[in-house]
Amino acid sequence: MLAGLSAASMDEHERSTEVSMEELAALVDTAGGDTVAIIMQNRPTPDPRSFIGDGKVQEMKELIAMNDCDLAVFDNELTPSQMRVLSEELGVKVLDRSGLILDIFAQRAQTREGQLQVELAQYKYLLPRLTGMWTHLVRQTASGGSSPIGTRGPGETQLETDRRHIRRKIQKLEEELAAVRKVRSTQRRRREKNAMPVVALVGYTNAGKSTLLNCLTGADIPANDRLFDTLDTTTRRLRLDETQEVLLSDTVGFIRKLPTHLIEAFKATLEELRFADVLLHVIDISNPEWEEQARVVDELIRQLGAETTPCLRVYNKCDAYIGILPHGDNVVCISARSGEGADLLVKKLLEMLDRGKKQVTLKIPYAKAGIADMLNREAKVLRLEYTDEGIEAEAVVTPETFGKIREFIPGYREPKEDWED
């Protein structure tokens, strides 16, 4: 049983619509459930107690009994007390959109890193909801919390014990994820030294990112027509031309009303976006809601601090679109399934990577004179002088050559990671 609320007092993006309810039904299907009924409610403000109001709760209860439902899913975020009230009134388990997405993520995470991230998000989701779960336990005092002096119970309540246990778990998981991020950054630095640019695929869930990765690299990654099919980052090599090779990374799909703690938990994976040389924002143009979906992704890219990374908008499923296709400098239209437009995408990608060239001044000791030969091969050399101290050079270099010669740039300092002091 699905339920959604559109209240005038809510932020426009938080309100339930027919489209967001269809998406919720798709999420339930992905999680392994069957939707038998959908109920929508319009109110000026959400009911503080039951969220949708007592009349609608009664209507839901009847529908649940008629259809023999065992789960009610709400399209909006519920407070812990609203979840408890609804569960008691409806007589079935109640989930909100965040809880459902977490459930799907828990089913899908394959790698240890993905599982850590999901577990952390689940505990952060659970912590404020514990109060509602333990209301049946009376505080350990003679009169349930307001006892006279001398009659207080000796120990901690179950609720406080659980809270402390969960906080400890959260701290441990955050430490483990911090270690994962350090490993990632070491791998990233090694990649930079090996001079391999990184291109990250981003987009709304089910936009066709995995299909595009398969199309470009010949990989055999499962690409199914369901939400959140990819959770763990997959990276493959892609040769653009005779001289240029890149690493192409597939990332988790975004969705509207994505829980904040989930974005936080997945930062270890999603920070790849910040360090990518180019983002490919894959948009399913055959979806009537593609503009809203693209807005959601752009907002999440901004939240992750990757808005300054060069971005190429890739309009996928163009063969299923009727109308004038988008066009412009950083725009390409393709069909990832048939491969149509893939050559143009590779061409545009090469152009964008060329734009990342930098002009640098270098001081190279004679012991490393081979660097000068490499510059002649891989860069546009503007000046080369042999002095008493060593070789001075000025050159225009690509991002990959920059990775090999940056230690010879006077005064150059490595940018620091978030976890570094």
Describe the fold and architecture.
The strands form three sheets. The chain has a six-stranded mixed sheet, sandwiched between helices. Strands 2-1-3-4 form a four-stranded parallel sheet, sandwiched between helices. Helices cover 41% and strands 18% of the residues. 34% of the residues are buried. It has 421 residues and is of the alpha/beta class. The chain is built from 15 helices and 13 strands. It has helices at residues 18-31, 54-67, 80-90, 97-108, 112-126, 130-133, 158-193, 209-217, 260-265, 267-270, 272-275, 290-303, 342-355, 370-378, 399-405, and strands at 2-7, 38-43, 71-74, 93-96, 198-203, 234-239, 245-250, 278-284, 311-316, 331-333, 358-364, 380-386, 391-397. Mean pLDDT is 80; it is low at 134-155. Helix 4 packs antiparallel against helix 5.
